[in-house]
Specification:
By secondary structure, this protein is an alpha/beta fold. It has a domain at about 25-90: Aldehyde Dehydrogenase, Chain A, domain 2. It contains two helices and four strands, in the order E-H-E-H-E-E. The protein has helices at about 35, 50-60; strands at about 25, 45, 65-70, 90. It has a two-stranded parallel ribbon with strand order 1-2. Strands 3-4 form a two-stranded parallel sheet. The longest helix is centred in the middle third of the chain and has 9 residues, at about 50-60. The two termini are about 25 Å apart. About 10% of the residues are buried.
Amino acid sequence: MKERLCYWARKKIEGAGNYYAPTVLGNVTAGMTGFRQELFGPVATLTTARDADHALALANDSEFGLSATSIPPTRRRPSALPASWSAAASSSMATAPATPAWPSAA
């Protein structure tokens, strides 16, 4: 393995069989493999943006762009970002649900 996806681990899953536990990778930056590559499995990456313009630049800096979600600092201020994303499906305050009409990697 040339490169590690994650440089820390907090919990090892024990047991028999092929199983990959749901995983959240926090503090992921644009230079990391977890940001650049499509991850398969129950994996979510969390990237923090400096401001709305930076968030838009990060969201559109992907060769995949199937779905994107914005979580604004407060519920009272919904995000206008989803309208500007280069993604097939986008949402604010919730993950984009799987809908048969939308493009999918599956």
